[in-house]
Write a structure and sequence with these properties.
Elements: H1 6-30, E1 40-47, E2 61-69, H2 73-103, H3 110-127, H4 132-193, H5 199-215, E3 219-222, E4 228-232, E5 235-239, E6 242-243, E7 246-250, E8 262-266, H6 280-289, E9 291-292, E10 295-296, H7 298-318, E11 319-324, E12 327-332, E13 351-353, H8 358-362, H9 368-372, E14 380-382, H10 384-388, H11 406-416, H12 426-466, H13 470-506
Antiparallel strand pairs: 1-2, 3-4, 4-5, 5-6, 7-8, 9-10, 11-12, 13-14
């Protein structure tokens, strides 16, 4: 037989369950635009008779067993993986755009334009090698050409410095996120053990892991106590309430492309940190130090620009020998010619580095090849000899014959028509670099767009699972309101029944 007041008790439980449902629905609606919030649902079950062997045929109503967050850990893992990959490609795309701006296009490149201007003035000078005003313009254009190369190198170095700063900032952010996740792990484990709700704490933790995954490739596993263990390339970053800290240090290794830049190591063990193959930090490091055709970064493109400056300067100064169809042709360089007001071959190099004179330049290396290895895009300059006296600009192949422009004609050919490197003229050599940069930039942008779309799709999928739907919550609101009203009506009915019964007893 059921308890005398069983009906009222059941109705009260119904009121309580409906009230919890209304509260949860209200909480969901209020957080519909909150980043990282996972919608919550009420789990409830029916209560059986008070005793196992009770003769009552009626249960004892309903009870709320839990309020759970709706979230897919599997989709989270997939998103963290794709987010890391997309973030690395975003870095590649962003910085390749900046590098492309430095080099320009084959039509708009400042370096190509300056080279064309220099060649044009050399052609003008060839018409009258004694024209001192044209010689002054040649010097000005040559200095402008060198300045443009210097500026390009400075711009690339500036981008590399920015990347180095990004590395340091990323390490600081990783440490911060790891520390916060470890703290939330502790709070979640404690709350879970005491039976308290951990929904909001878990949302906050997942949001931090989202941010962490954008910086570095991570593997995340969940323990029985709901805490996360996070590893990077097999090394534990976070486990329970403990976080393994990273630190930056300055690399001092002349054989390394990272010499003078920040290196990263685990603070406790001192072991080098490997960022894996994804995440923004990996992108920063690769773009900062990449120097090979398989790992193209700032260093690779700087080396390409340095090679162009060095090859062009050496060909201009020393001349080149070209073999084509079994025929060998030698083109004189500036050092082979003489200027005006000179009785003998000067042997002056037109281009040196850091403003050195021709003699200082030649003596700067163990041999001539070693001396040319000192010329880079950052250091190339017009020699001090030419800066001090434009009459020393070589044009003639014969001393005393000032109208002779044989050497100058060869130099003009070297500027545009003669292969100075493999099968490339100076213009073609630079255009190959420009085309390579443009192609790499376009490829990086395309790869990022594709991977970003994948990450967005997965994020949309997990949002469809865990996000709040206003339509769904409106239905829930109506359902719980109806349930509450029905239970309230039952409370009123049972109160009336008890009042009538008690009145009959009093009579």
């Amino acid at each position: 037989m059921a308890s005398t007041f069983a009906g009222l008790s059941i109705a009260n439980r119904g009121l309580s369950a409906a009230q919890v449902g209304l509260t949860v629905t209200t909480n969901n609606m209020s957080n519909i635009d909150t980043d990282g919030y996972s919608r919550q649902v009420v789990s409830q079950s029916s209560i059986g008779p008070a005793a196992v062997y009770s003769s009552s045929l009626v249960g004892s109503g309903v009870e709320v067993t839990s309020v759970d967050r709706v979230n897919s850990f599997r989709l989270n893992q997939k998103y963290w993986q794709e987010n890391s990959a997309a973030s690395e490609l975003e870095v590649d795309s962003t910085y390749m755009e900046q590098i492309e701006e430095v080099f320009g296009t084959t039509e708009t490149s400042d370096i190509s334009s300056k080279l064309d201007s220099l060649e044009a003035e050399l052609e003008t000078l060839a018409d009258d090698p004694t024209d001192t005003s044209v010689r002054a313009i040649v010097l000005s254009d040559a200095e402008s050409f060198c300045d443009t190369l210097n500026t390009a190198a400075e711009d690339l170095e500036s981008i590399r410095s920015d990347l180095n700063t990004e590395v340091y900032t990323a390490v600081e952010e990783i440490n911060s996120y790891a520390s916060q996740i470890a703290e939330l792990n502790s709070q979640i484990s404690t709350a879970s053990a005491s039976g308290a709700s951990t929904n909001e704490l878990e949302d906050s933790r997942d949001l931090l892991v989202d941010e962490l995954s954008s910086l570095v490739g991570i593997d995340v596993t969940e323990a029985d106590d709901s805490s996360y263990t996070i590893t990077v390339d097999g090394v534990t970053l976070v486990k329970g309430d403990e976080a393994n800290e990273l630190e930056c240090y300055t690399v001092t290794d002349s054989s390394s492309d990272a010499d003078g830049m920040y290196g990263i190591r685990w603070a406790e063990s001192g072991d080098d940190f490997d960022s894996g193959d994804s995440g923004a930090l990996t992108g920063y490091l690769q773009m900062r130090d990449g120097s090979t055709s398989d790992s193209k970064g700032i260093v690779y493109y700087m080396n390409q620009l340095d090679e162009f400056a060095q090859t062009f300067a050496q060909a201009f100064n020393e001349g080149v020998t070209v073999t084509s169809d079994s025929e060998t042709t030698t083109y004189s360089g500036h050092a082979d010619g003489v200027g005006i007001d000179s009785d003998e071959t000067t042997g002056i190099r037109f281009f040196t580095y850091d403003g050195l004179s021709s003699e200082e330049f030649v003596n700067s290396g163990s041999d001539l090849e070693d001396a040319y290895s000192n010329i880079t895009a950052a250091t190339i300059s017009v020699s001090k000899d030419i800066q001090d006296d434009t009459n020393k600009i070589a044009a003639s192949s014969t001393a005393g014959d000032e109208s002779n422009a044989d050497v100058l004609d060869d130099i003009i050919d070297i500027c545009s028509d003669v292969n100075i490197s493999g099968n490339s003229t100076a213009t073609e050599m630079y255009n190959v670099i420009v085309a390579t940069v443009a192609g790499d930039s376009a490829s990086a942008a395309s790869s990022y767009s594709s991977k970003s779309a994948t990450a967005t799709y997965i994020n949309t999928s997990r949002t469809s699972v865990s996000g709040v739907s206003s339509d769904e919550e409106t239905v829930n609101l109506t359902t719980y309101q109806s349930a509450y009203a029905a239970s309230a009506s039952m409370v009123s009915a049972w109160n009336e029944l008890y009042d009538t019964t008690l009145a009959m007893v009093d009579d």
